[in-house]
Amino acid sequence: MVASQCDSLNLLSFLPDAGRQVSTALLDPEIGGCVPALEDGRGLLVDPTMVELDDALAEAFERASEDEATLFLSLVGHGEYSDDDFYFLTKDTGLPVDSRRSFLFAQRIKELLGRHSTLDGLVILLDTCHAGIGARQAGRRWLRIVGEAGKRFDLLTASDDRVAANGCFSRSLVSVLRSGHAEFGERVRCADLKRVITGLCPMQTAVHLGFDGTREVAEADQGLWLALNSSPAWRRSPLAGNPAAPRIERLTAGYRPDPKLGETVGHLLTGVRLVAITGEAGAGKSTMLAALARPSVAGSYVPPDFLHAVLFADRGETAERIARELTRQLRRTVPGFADAEDAYRAGLDDVARTGASALELALLGPLRSLAPRRTGSPVRIAVDGLDDLDPGLQRRLRTVLLDLSREPALDWITTVVATRKPDLLPSAFVIRLGQPGGVPGPSREPEEAYGGQPLPGYDTGSPTSPRITPATLIVDVPGQPPVRHELSFGLTTLGRSRKAALRLGDSRVSRLHCEIQWNGTTAWLTDRDSANGTFVNGNRVLNAELAHRDVLRLGDSTVTFISVTQEDQDEEEDRFDVGQGTGAVASPRPDPAVLLELLGAAATRGPIPISILTAASAAAGGPDRRVHVRDFLAGLGDSVSRTRAGLADETVLWTAGPPVLFPDVAARLHARLAAATSEVAVVTGDDEPTLEQSYAAANEAEHFWLAGLREDALASLERRASHIPVENRERWAAWANRAARELGETDRITLRCEARHATWTGKAGDAAGALARFEVLLPIATATLSGGDEDVLSIRNNIGHLLAELGRCGSPSGR
C-alpha cells in the first residue's frame, strides 16, 4: 500500500489515513488475509521518494515471485497522465511530469513482471487524480503494457474522466471490505467492487479491467480476489466455507427466478418432508437447488436463511467426506447441533461406536439426539449429485435421506434432492422440470455445458476419434528469426497491435489481423477484416479449418500451423530452425495438452487438489509450478470449477463434459495421478485430514486401478484405511464386487478383496458374519490357488481365530 503526497501539489487531507485503512483491511486475516510484501514487515509506504518507491516495488515483486504468491498493489495520492502515460507522483516528483522526474508506473510494472515469471497474478487498486485523460483510456494502456508480460492481473481505478476526489474510492473500498455484501459470493473481487463503489461515489465512476494472461476478460481470473465476504448474511449461510460455493455462484449467475422454484419452496414450507426435483439432464435441477441456497438471486421466492446445509456431491466422494461437510454446516446453522453431536458421541459405548457408519456418527445420531429439545423452524437440507455417486455410497446416502423423511422424531427436518431418478426416493414429492430450454430461467448445468457431447479432443469410442495434441505456430517475420508460439486453449489473436496475443512486427499486417480458435483438436481461422487479407496455402480466406503444416500468409510474414503428438514435436522443431526471437510474444503456458488430459482423467473422480495436479503435470512433462498451472486454468474460464482459487488448498474440476480417453493414454495419466497422490502423507490418529489427504483416501486406489496397477491399488486401500470400521467394510465390499465384475470371481485380486471384506466385517463388530464370509471363500480359494498358497493359509488362519472368538469348536473346512 502506497500513500503518497506530492510536495509540489495541493495537500490531500485524507492521506495517509486512507492508505492506512486499506492496508489494515487487506492485512486482516479475517478479511484480506494478506501478509506484508516487504521484508521489514511494512504493509504501508507513506510519502516515499522515487527511489524508495522503486526499491520497495522491486522487493515486493521479488518476494511475491519467490513465494509464487499474488501481489496486491494499492496506490492512493496524486497521479498524472501525459501523452497517454500514467505517472504516480511521489513526494519528490517535479512538475511538469516526465520520465526523469516522475515515476512512470505502468512501464516499471511491465519491467518487473517480465523479470519475475513466477508471480501468481497481480491486483492493482488505483485511487489517484487524473489530468484530463479518462482512466478507461489510461487503463487500456495498462492492459497493453502490462499484458505484454503475459501475466494475470486485475485493475480497479477510482474514476473515468472525472477527478477522483476526497479519497472516496479508498474509504468506500474499506467499508465494503469490512462489511461485505449480501449479493457477493464467498470472495470479493474487483468486478464486484466496481458496481458497489460506483454507487457509493456518485461523483466518479470506477473502472475495472481484467486480463487472464492472454486477453481481456470481464471477470478476471478466479484466483485474483481481494477479500473474503464479511457479510453477516453470507457468513451465517451454509455456503460460507462450502466447497460447492463457486459452483453455486456460477450456476446462479444471471439467474431468472422460475415459478417452479416458488412451488418447491411452498412444499418445503408446508410440511413436505422430502422433495425430489427431477428432469432430464440439462433441465435445470442443479441450478434450482443452487437458487434455493442463494436467496439473493431468487427474488421473493426464497426467504433469507432458507437452507441450513447444502451438499453438491461429486463422483469419488466418500461417506466420511459427505458426513464431515454436512456436519460442519449444521454446527454453524442449527442451534444446539454441536452440543447434540458431543452428547451423542459421549453416550456411545465401544461396541456401538465400532458398528456405526460415518453418516450415523456425524449426522443421523446427532440429529436424533437433538430431536427431544429441538425448537424453532424446520431444518432444511439440500443434496445434489446423488445420481453421480458410486453405487454403494449412493445406496447408503439414499437410505439416510429416506430415514430423515420417515422417522417420526425427525419430522422437523425437510430435505430437497436433485435427481434424474426419482424412483430412488419413493416417498418423495416430485417436482418435474421441463426439457432443456423448455423452462425459462435456469442456466445449463455443468454436466451439459457441451450439450452432452464429449470434451473436444477426447476419444468417443470411435476408431476415428481424435485426441488432444499440442498445437504450435511457427512465426516467420522478415528480418527476424523464426519463433515458436504454442497455442493456448481457446482464442488467440494475431496482429500488429500490442493487444494481439501473438504480435507480429510487420507493417503490412493489420492491428488485429486474424484469430485462431483452438479446442485441443481443431484450429479454426477467422480473418478480422484485415486490409491485406489472410491467405492459407496461397488462397485468400475469410474462415478456414487449419490442417497440419498449413502455411498462413499475413502481410509479408508466414505462420505455419503444426499439430502433432508430443513424441513428434522434437522432429518438427528440427525441421524449423526455431529460436526465441522478438517477433512474437510467446505464451507462458507450456504443453497445455498434458494438463487438459490430466484434468479430463481426474474429472471422473471429482475435484483434484492443485498440488496433486501440479505434481502429476510435472511428472508428465507439463507445467511444473503451481503458478503456471493457474496461468493455464485462467484461460479455460467456465470449463473448470475452482474452489478456494488462488490458495494453497485450491481444487479444480473439469466441468465441460465427461471425456473418454484412449485406454493407453488413460492408463498413463492415471499412473501419473497415482504417483502424485501416493506422496501425500497418511492421516494419523484422530487428526482432521487435509484436503490432499481426503482426496488420496478417496482416489489413490482408483488411480492405481485405472493405471492397471492392481496390487498397488489394494496396498493403497490398506494404507489409507478409515478409522471407522464400517466404512472400511463397505469400501472392501464395493471393491470385491468391482474386482469380480472386471477380473472374474476366482481372480487372486478378487479373492483378496473378499478376504479383506470379511476381515473388516469382523472388525465392525460382526464376528459371525465375518466367519460366514471366510467359510464361503475358503473352498473357492483352495480350488483356485492350491491349499498351500499364502492367501489360502491366511483365510484358514482367520477362520481359526474367529472360531475361538465365538467359542466354537472345530477346524476350518475346505481341506
From TrEMBL:
Keywords: Phosphoprotein. CDD domains: FHA. InterPro entries: Cell_Proc_Reg/RNA_Proc, FHA_dom, NACHT_NTPase, P-loop_NTPase, Pept_C14_caspase, SMAD_FHA_dom_sf. GO terms for molecular function: cysteine-type endopeptidase activity. Residues 273-423 form the NACHT domain. One of its GO terms (biological process) is proteolysis. Residues 492-541 form the FHA domain. This is Nephrocystin-3. It comes from Amycolatopsis decaplanina DSM 44594.
